[in-house]
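Notes, Module 5: Reading structure tokens.

Key idea: the token line is not a picture. It is a compressed description, and you learn to read it the same way you learned to read a sequence, by spotting repeated patterns. We will look at two proteins. The first is printed below with its tokens.
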Amino acid sequence: MLAVYDGDYITEDLRKLPQNHADLIEAFLQELIDDERALTTLLRRDAVNHCPDFNSKVIEFLLRAGYNLARISPKGGILGRYRIIYAIDNQHDDFYLLAIVEKNFTDTYTEAKYNYEPNHPITTRICAEYEHSRIPYV
């Protein structure tokens, strides 16, 4: 049975968003968690699911460093601006939701938005939480 756990910062990440955006993300996550087939797609390195509509992809530079981390990219509307970073514990079939970030669609670095930069504060935070949670390395 696949299980999903909120990381230490998910509530804080949601509080930083406009309330209507946070509500949409929470509804999306609940739909995802309630659908065993959708959760199963998260175990693949690259996956597409249509209800709820999202794709997921491993974060390659973090995988090479031993972290089993990936991102969920919801499709459409306001949700399409955000990414949900999660860790996979393959030993226990668990998922840990570690961050909700607004995707940076430009090449300009900003701390408020995220584009998978190795030295970004979000990267530092999710790696530290991964280690603290004792999620197995790959």
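Here is the second protein, with the sequence above and the tokens below, as before.
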Amino acid sequence: LMDNVQKQLEVCAFTIQTCIIAEKVGAVRAELCDNPIEGGTTPSYGTIKQVREKVSIQLFPIIRPRSLNYFYDEEEWQIIIDDVKMCKELLCDGISIGISKQDGTIDIERMKRIAAIAYPMELTCNRVIDAAPNPFEALEQIIDCGFHRILTSGKAATAPEGMDILKQLVQQADGRISIMPGAGVKSNNIKEIAAVTGAYEFHTSARKAVANTVSYSNPKITDAGNMYIADEEELRKIVAILNAE
């Protein structure tokens, strides 16, 4: 069904620099996140604003106030609503979000509410499907909520390990929603992932830690952490492979 659709790359970006690289190499979309170590949380107002001014590719900030799970209390729910409105005000093309109930199933009511608030932005459902007990049931619910794509590793640690479930999800979706494999997607496995799953959108961070450029650093400071920027050469390879498909 989707054989004639151009295969596309979304880059998971933890910095403005990565968004600029993503546009340069021919990715169609940046999923903008903070906190790579935590699996990605909502980026700041200033970050989103600057990225929007710098790049013209699709910009989808992740809306995730914290890590751990996708089950949110009333205060966190209000934070989510405000952040969705912020993305709309800043002219983002869409958002990446997932909300579950305490039992891990999709919170249909809240997801539909988000869809209404976010309109006319597009909606990517983040990996809440991988945290759900039944991904095939979750798929139907996410479609019902009006989402456009689902980022998923096929319930495995990485997409290459989850290819069997990814393939089943693509077949079940039958063109109603895009199943976008992500996690562990690289230039050396993307061709196989595309062939096996039948997906046409793919997600990668291709990230590498950058060297510290300040001339003085205190070795006793342990919370310095790493800064990650996408490997431009690796992204170019992935885009070239997808363009040749």
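Summary for the second protein:
- The mean pLDDT is 96.
- DSSP finds nine helices and ten strands in the chain.
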